[in-house]
Every structure is written in C-alpha cells, then in structure tokens.
C-alpha cells in the first residue's frame, strides 16, 4: 500500500519512497525507509493529508503521498 | 565577537534573536536574493557582540536560496560561535540540521528551546547526556525570559567552548560521511545514503539522551480536530477573516485613520497655511506645500493605521500557527484556482497593500505558485483603491454605495482567479506545484516578534509616503499648475495636455475627458493619488480620502463639474478600470525585484492594463446596449 491509502489513526512504516521532485525533501524532513508515521487527518475535501512523524506534524498532498510505499504496523 | 543563529523554521529562533538584541537590529537583504538579512548588536560584560539571524532552514543542502545563504555564510565567515536553536518538542527533525553543521566542523552551541512545551508533551531530555552524545555544549531555554538571555550571553562571552570536542559517535559519523562521499555512486544515491546515515546518528543520540513518554494525542491535534477538520473549519476561517476585516476597517483601524485624518485636515493644513502666509512666503510656495505636499502625503498617511492593523492581525494569526492550518484546509480549493494553500496569507495581505503581499509569496514552494501569486495579487482591492471606489460609489450610486464597493472587491477576486487560471494553463503550464508544510504546534505568539513583523511588513508603506508619494505630490502639483509659459489655469496645464493624450485610449469607455486621463496616469504613480487628483481637477480642495466620509465628499463633488463629466455607467466603467489596471510603481518595483527582472515587471504592467481596458470597455458598451 501507499501512504495515500492510510486511514485515520493507522500507524504505518515507510518501505520506500518513489523518485520524485520531493523525494529528497521528504527524506530531509525525516521520512526515510523504516520511519513510523501515523495518519492524523485529511483536510475537509480529503486532500491534503496530515501525518505525525518524528514528533511533529506534516501536511502533504495525496498525489505526493502516493509516492511513499508503506506497510501497516498498527 | 561574531555569532550566528541557525535553526529550523518555527523554533522560536527569531524570538530569541529579538530578545538578545532588542531594537538594535539592521534588516537588509542578502546579496542577489530576496531573503531578509538580520543583524543585531549587543553589549554584554564590556564586549561588543554582533549576532546574525540566519534564515530558518531544515537543512543546508543549498537547494533553496535560504539554504544556500546559510551554508555560504557559515563557510565564508570566521565566526566565534554558531548557536543552533532547536525546538525541544521536535528534536529528531531539528537535529538533522545540527548533524549537518557538525559534519562541517562548525563550533556549535546547542540551545534546546521551548523546553516547557517538550515536558508537557512527555519528552524528557538529559542535557548532560546530550552534551556527551554530541560533544558540544547544550543549554536549555524557555523562549522569552531575561534569564535565558543572560544565560546565552554568558556562554557567548565565556571560554567554555574550548572544553568541547566532537564525541566518538560524531567522529565515527564524519568518517562514514567521508566514505559515502568517496563511494563513487551517483550524486542522488550519495545524498540519500547521507540522509539515512544522519538519521541513524540522530536515533542513537535520542536513545542516549531522551526519554519520551508519549502523551497522545497532543493538544494541537485535539484543537486541529476541531479547527482544521470537517465543514466547520471553513466557517471558522471565514469567521476569523471577517473579524480581521472588522477590526481593520471598522473597530480599530478606521477610527485611528479618522483621528489622523482630522488631525491633518483640520489642524495641520490650516496651521501650515496660516504660518506660511504669516511668514510672507510666496503664494505659489504656499500652494505647493499645502495643496501639494501636505494634502498628498497626508492622504497616504491616513491609510497607515489600516495597513498596520491588518498586518498586525495577520502576523498574530501566523504566530499562533493558525495560518498553516488555513493553508492546509484551503489547498484543494486554491489548487483548483491555479494557486496553492500557502498562497492564502499573501493574498489576504493584498487587501491591505500589494507590496508586502508580493514579498509574502516568497514562502511558496514552487516557482509556478510564486510567480502566479505575484502576478495576480495586484488585482485585489488594496487599501489605496478603496477610496476611489468609495467616492465614486457614493457619488453615482448613492442608494447602493456599499453594494457597489462590494461588487468591486468581488470583481478583483474573480479577475485574480481568472488570471491565475490563465497563467497556469499558458505560461506556467509545464511547471509542477508542490506542497509540503509543517503544521507547528499552536502557541500564544510572542508579542515582541509579532510587533516587529508587523513593522517589517508595514514600514514599506510608510517609506512610500515619505518618498514616492512626496515626489508625486510635488510633480502633480507642478504639472497641474504650469505650462510652457509658466503658471497657468489648470485646464491649460501640462497635466491637461497629458491627460487628454491618455484619454484617447478611452474613447469608447465613456470617460475620455482629460481629467479622467490625468487621474489614470497619476494612479500609476500611486492609487491613492487618483482621488486627490480628481479632487484637485474638479476644483474641490478637500476631498476626503476616507470611506466613512465619502458620502459627504460626494455631495461636494456633485456640485462641481464632475457630475456632468461622468454618467453612472461611465463612472462604473471607470471604477472597473481603476480596480484592475496597472499596479502602482511601488508594486511594480517590488514585482521586478521578486519576480527577477524587467521582463516580468513589464508583463505585469501591460497585461493588467490590457485586461482592465477590455473589461471596462465591455462593461460600458454592454451597459449601453442594455440601456443604462
């Protein structure tokens, strides 16, 4: 699954990040393979989504979240 | 001695900088880029310390202008110490920058700021162990307290740095970094391995020095489930926006503007007139000072309270962390309109003054979003266009004045959207838009920083009153009182000649008088001047530039020649044109600086003129067909 498919409250573990313009920025922000993220919420129209990662909150668009492969761990 | 502050955005770094240096700051620009450069000076224990506040960045990969500034500055200058300000409640991501700085061998003082926040969130940091793990001195502060200030300054002036050297862990990491860099892989692969290695080091440091007892969900998340979730989030946004505009235009800003206006018109102008007359100053000089300079500059000064109150409200909301939520909830709508969620704040600023709004577009991620935002912002009804609308509405639509003004606001917003759409599907078609945004925890903002930010955004407007408006007032006074033969009646002046040349453009718009032409021309210098030019031209000395008194001014104006020069329809067409045409020179100058060149400035001036010309022509001609 990808980060885009995460439902509110799920804990996910990052498996890989697809090549995109954002890849290095996402990694710099702490989203690297092995990192656990929680899905917090999506904005009223379902996009963007907010995730909890390394003790802070990050908002990203669904299109970008689709680039992040994850597996559910909780 | 020379010190620099570095850190991520939202760490309270600027608050600490303001606390350390107080008002003794110099704000300039980094060479070649539009990023603020802040330097402050402190005297402490007989030592002169200069402190540079480097832009907030998440890393120093030199990918953005800010990052490039930080790394270049740190590498090129011999600094005595670099203080790395860290948000304690967000350690892991903040330490990424720290690790990068350590790799460069930069002497670091690590300041764990907002310790109180961290503790509330169940994060316990052992300072001693943190020092051991990194091999650099670590202090903790709670943001704005004089104790923090002295504590920091004590370290600055002591020799404590000599006792530290990078820890075993950090040294190992640096060796590993060198290995990765020498591995001969592709640049991208190397960068990614480096990032991973840094976070591995961070995980080790965290394991050694930090004890996290998750208190979940955080307070900010609880607030967000209400403020940034579901349909009510839009209602809350609209309510807050309404409150901001009420505070600005009704409750606080306008009353202050009224007081200032009264002071200028009822006290300063009569006093200046009498004083000059008593001194026996030549009549033309009296006219220049009173009718030209004081009236012109005064008209602009009366907007200062409005602009400052609006920017104060926005800076305050930004300081609480709420503006990030606005970007979050509005992004899908803004994206459909060809903009981005982060563009909401600069756009709202555009209702005050386009200049800081254009500068505010710096915060946007992609080139496409930034350029679009810069090019469409001037369509909005800035504080200086409001009096044009208020005066014409009161004169020609006395029964519906408020609605007609509202209509002009809506027209500005609609045109901005249409233009954003057009630009997005033509010039910037190939470029992508990205959106990655930290949602910082909600906080009560530090008022000192809010004030400084307000000043920073609004000072350009004050400056404009002192420089360009001053010059324009003198220029317009001269043009309207002189021709080749010396002083003359206004309808024979230079301005009349220029105005009638310009008015040819409006032959089919219903307002092809030289007076309207002159007003349009002066509006390019500054929109505030349109109303005063019209006032001067129709021989009404004191046309109030305020919305509140527009009705009163309208009565006076109706008795002048203006009532016959415009029909309701041509007045409406003139309003439409004024709302949409070429930005004032100050805004154009800002566009040149921010968009990077004369080309974009010229483009902005011409495409807005063209759109305004076409739309107002359509309004007039269709209106005529419909029998208005």
Per CATH, which architecture of the largest domain in chain B? 3-Layer(aba) Sandwich
Can you say what the CATH homologous superfamily of chain A is? Ferrous iron transport protein A (FeoA)
Helix coverage percent of chain B: 55-70%
Biggest chain pair interface: A-B, 32 and 45 residues
Q: In what order do the strands lie side by side in the largest sheet of chain A?
A: 4-3-2-1-5
| Tally of contiguous helical segments of chain B | 29
For the sheet with most strands of chain B, the description reads: 7 strands, mixed
| Shape field of chain A | globular
In spatial order, strands of the major sheet of chain B run 2-3-4-1-5-6-8
Give the helix level of chain A as a range of percent.
10-25%
Main sheet record of chain A: 5 strands, antiparallel
How many distinct beta strands of chain B?
12
Number of strands of chain A: 5
CATH class of the largest domain in chain B: Alpha Beta
What is the approximate shape of chain B? elongated
């Amino acid at each position: 699954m990808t980060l885009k498919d995460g439902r509110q409250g799920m804990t996910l573990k990052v498996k890989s990040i697809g090549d995109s313009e954002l890849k290095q920025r996402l990694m710099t922000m702490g989203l690297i393979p092995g990192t656990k993220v929680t899905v917090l919420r999506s904005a009223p129209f379902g996009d963007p989504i907010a995730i909890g990662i390394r003790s802070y909150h990050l908002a990203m668009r669904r299109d970008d979240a689709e680039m992040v492969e994850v597996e559910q761990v909780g | 001695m020379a010190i620099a502050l570095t850190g991520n955005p939202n760490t309270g770094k600027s608050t600490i900088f303001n606390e350390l240096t107080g008002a003794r700051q110099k704000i300039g620009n980094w060479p070649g880029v539009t990023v603020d450069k802040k330097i402050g000076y402190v005297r402490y224990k007989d030592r002169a310390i200069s402190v540079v506040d480097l832009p907030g960045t998440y890393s120093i990969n030199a990918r953005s202008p800010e990052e490039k500034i930080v790394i270049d500055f740190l590498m090129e200058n011999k600094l005595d110490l670099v203080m790395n300000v860290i948000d304690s409640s967000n350690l892991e991501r903040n330490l990424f920058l720290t690790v990068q700085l350590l790799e460069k061998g930069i002497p670091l003082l690590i300041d764990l700021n907002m310790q109180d926040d961290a503790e509330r969130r169940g994060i316990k940091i052992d300072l001693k162990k943190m020092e051991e793990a990194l091999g650099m001195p670590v202090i903790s502060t709670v943001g704005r307290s004089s104790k923090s200030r002295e504590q920091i300054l004590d370290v600055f002036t002591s020799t404590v740095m000599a006792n530290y050297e990078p820890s075993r862990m950090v040294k190992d990491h640096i060796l590993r970094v060198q290995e990765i860099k020498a591995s001969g892989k592709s640049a991208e692969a190397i960068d990614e391995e480096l990032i991973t290695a840094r976070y591995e080091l961070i995980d080790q440091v965290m394991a050694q020095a930090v004890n996290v007892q998750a208190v979940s969900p955080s307070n900010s998340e609880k607030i967000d489930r209400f403020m940034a979730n579901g349909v009510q989030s839009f209602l809350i946004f609209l309510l807050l926006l309404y409150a901001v505009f009420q505070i600005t235009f009704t409750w606080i800003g306008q009353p202050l503007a009224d007081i200032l206006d009264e002071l200028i018109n009822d006290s300063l102008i009569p006093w200046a007139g009498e004083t000059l007359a008593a001194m026996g100053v030549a009549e033309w000089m009296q006219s220049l000072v009173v009718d030209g300079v004081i009236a012109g500059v005064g008209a602009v000064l009366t907007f200062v309270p409005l602009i400052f109150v609006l920017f104060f409200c926005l800076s305050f909301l930004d300081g609480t962390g709420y503006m990030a939520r606005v970007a979050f909830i509005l992004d899908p709508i803004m994206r459909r309109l060809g903009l981005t969620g982060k563009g909401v704040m600069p756009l709202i600023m555009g209702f005050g003054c386009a200049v800081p709004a254009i500068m505010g577009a710096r915060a946007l991620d992609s080139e496409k979003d930034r350029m679009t935002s810069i090019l469409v912002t001037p369509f909005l009804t800035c504080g200086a266009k409001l009096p044009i609308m208020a005066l014409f509405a009161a004169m020609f639509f006395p029964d519906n004045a408020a609605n007609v003004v509202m209509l002009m606001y809506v027209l500005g917003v609609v045109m901005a959207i249409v233009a954003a759409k057009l630009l997005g599907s033509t010039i910037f078609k190939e470029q992508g838009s990205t959106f990655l945004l930290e949602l910082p925890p909600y906080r009560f903002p530090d008022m000192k920083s809010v004030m400084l930010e307000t000043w920073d955004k609004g000072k350009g407007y004050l400056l404009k009153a002192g420089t360009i408006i001053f010059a324009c007032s003198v220029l317009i006074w001269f043009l309207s009182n002189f021709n080749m033969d010396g002083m003359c009646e206004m309808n024979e002046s230079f301005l009349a000649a220029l105005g009638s040349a310009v008015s040819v453009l409006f032959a089919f718009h219903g307002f092809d008088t030289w007076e309207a032409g002159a007003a349009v021309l002066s509006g390019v210098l500054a929109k505030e001047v349109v109303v005063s030019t019209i006032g001067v031209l129709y021989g009404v000395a004191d046309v109030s530039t305020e919305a509140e008194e527009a009705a009163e001014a309208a009565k006076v104006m109706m008795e002048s020649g203006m009532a016959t020069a415009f029909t309701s329809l041509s007045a409406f067409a003139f309003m439409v044109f004024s709302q949409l045409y070429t930005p004032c020179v100050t805004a154009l100058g800002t566009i040149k600086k921010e968009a990077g060149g004369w080309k974009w400035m010229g483009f902005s001036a011409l495409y807005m003129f063209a759109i305004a010309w076409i739309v107002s022509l359509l309004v007039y001609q269709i209106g005529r067909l419909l029998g208005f």
